Amino acid sequence: MDVALSEGAFYATPSELAQKHADFLLKLPEDSRRRSYEVTASFNLDALESEATRLVGKECSVQVVAIHLLIARLNRSRGNADVGISNELLEHRVASEAATLKYVRRTTDIPVPEVYAVESRSDNPVGARYILQERIIGQPLAKFYDSMTDVQLERVVLQVADYEAQLLCCHFPMIGSLIEDTSAAAIRMDRMGHPRILDYARPENSGPWPSSHEFLKAYVRAELELLEGAPETWQRERAKNHTLHGDSDGAPLEYMISWYRLLQKGIYQWTPAYPRDDEPSQDAPFVLRHIDLSVTNIMVAFDDPTRVVGIIDWEGACVVPLWSTVLGNGFLGSLPRDHKLHKLRRDIHISREPAVWAAIREGSTVRSLFYLVAFHYSIRRSPKDLNAMFMESYQYWPKSDADAFQELVDFIQSTNDHIIK
User: Fold this and answer.
1) 122 falls in which pLDDT band (50, 70, 90)?
2) DSSP string spanning 240-264?
3) Which of 17, 259, 307, 317 could form a disulfide with 301 if both were Cys (CB 3.0 to 4.6 A apart)?
4) Which residues contact 157 (CB under 8 A, 6 or more apart)?
5) In the chain, what is the straight-line distance between the N-terminal and C-terminal CA atoms, in Å?
6) How far from the centroid of its chain's Cα atoms is residue 260's Cα?
7) Is 2 exposed, middle or buried (0-12, 13-18, 19+ CB in 10 A)?
8) CA 343 to each of CA 157, 312, 335: distance values in angstroms, whole numbers, following the listed order
9) Cα dist. 337→63, 137, 315, 340 in Å?
10) What pTM was estimated for this model as a whole?
11) pLDDT of res. 9
């Protein structure tokens, strides 16, 4: 939840902003409106005002919605989405977002908010974890995106694709998240934080990892930890996803355990030729990724919606293998795949980081395995669909890769006619 702190509004008075917020709340369903009030009431906003005033050296006041100099990202779940997540993970999430913002601001030209203060623990006078940061003066690109001409969109692509390319040029020795080492005043690598790693992974299974191979092993271990170590949780989560998998006879727990055990065995036996497991190289660097670079998080100027003024919401940003970033359509996802702006975006990436081209051409096996292990398909897909996904990818793998998964292929072929559809 974001709360703005001001020493004077730029485009509206406090009373006008308060009215806009009230009008917004009235549009929400009653339950959502009640939760919003409860969350806001739980914060000690007086303490937040005091901290902001101390930082900027001028008296600040709190506005729930505003366009002002300072914004507080108050980290608490409005819909209880954080229930069951450890304090350690929640603290890491806030600290890593702040560290990432500092790193990006220091090492790139990407316009991101300046961080003034971070409090990753909730036992503070405000009563919530928070980041006090610069407020980007702009509007979400989403407000204009659907009505933009190709010429206007091209201007935006030229800027955002360059920012994406700068992240692709930020290379790291391991896969994980960034954290600030306050004792050394430096940013260092740390484990992968929530929400990027599987929710049920044990802390010792959260990195950082020295290779893509170890990264995949961690994900399949996390899926099996859920299936074998918390079957009731798995059943409950699968029931919530009934509309995705459509099972009629209940969740096939034993089948899924057998399936993922064989997938794990194949991953452990597999000797990847790409990316290099023992020596991350220019063919497969580990790069920084904003996990939600959508039109809602791209801020554009009030006087010119084609001028990008900020990239916001870096929660969950992480360091990942280049091969896991290169095939998506990013913020242009709503455009047809053959639209010329996709090519323009990709050409900009390749011009700044030539390794992107190698990552596009190679790495089909590791990408396919990543999609199979990283998205909770044991609770989101039926066995039939999971088998079809695997076999569709498997047919394109080099024989040297495919041989490691022969036992899983045999299992799929021997059971496919008898499992729940």
Assistant:
1) confident
2) HTHHHH--SS---HHHHHHHHHHHH
3) 307
4) 332, 341, 344, 345, 348
5) 41
6) 24
7) middle
8) 11, 25, 12
9) 42, 32, 28, 9
10) 0.81
11) 36
